[in-house]
Design goal:
7 helices, alpha+beta, 5 strands
Length: about 180
């Protein structure tokens, strides 16, 4: 069984990430019973803390675990859950699978790009939304499907997009 290294790894400053967040991640790693087989769990925690996994965080994790940075990068780049770029507070995923595409998801994503002023895999200027096109959400009977965070919107029509987006904008104002 491998115990986390007790060394202190100072937070790299290239990304200008808060030291407190590195301290939180280091505390999480140090409190694991073993780090063997825990890379994905640690990366999940890191992404929850920072919101994304840029190079500095990947190298921090690699040093803490005593593994090559390339190994960490390989895992981060393999799993679509992980992201190396900041995301908006809400992620909008538009299904581009066959059933959704046939029922107009191409028009839905184009309209969202217009309304948000961004392309796919970009973040809105206010940091509220990230737009993604995905291969399949698995709700083909509800095509076309848009998913925002964990909420699925089925049989979406272009004219409903303003109401959907505004419901998330209104939540921000209320908070």
């Amino acid at each position: 069984m491998t115990k986390p290294q007790a060394i202190s790894v100072t937070a790299p400053v290239k990304e200008n990430l808060p030291k407190e967040k590195f301290d939180e991640l280091e505390g999480f790693i140090n409190n694991l019973e073993t780090t063997k087989g825990s890379l994905i769990e640690i990366l999940h925690k890191a992404q929850n803390i920072f919101g994304y996994l840029p190079r500095d965080i990947q190298l921090f994790v690699a040093r803490k675990l005593g593994i090559p940075g390339a190994e960490v990068f390989g895992v981060v780049s393999f799993y679509s859950y992980f992201t190396t770029k900041p995301r908006g507070k809400h992620t909008i995923s538009v299904c581009m699978g066959t059933a959704c595409f046939v029922r107009g998801s191409d028009k839905i994503i184009e309209r969202l790009k217009e309304k948000l002023g961004i392309e796919s895999n970009e973040i809105t200027e206010d940091g509220l939304f990230t737009l993604k096109d995905v291969r399949c959400i698995g709700a083909c009977g509800l095509a076309p499907v848009v998913m925002i965070d964990d909420k699925v919107y089925g049989r979406v029509k272009e004219e409903e997009l303003d109401d959907i987006l505004n419901s998330y904008r209104d939540r921000e104002v209320q908070q």
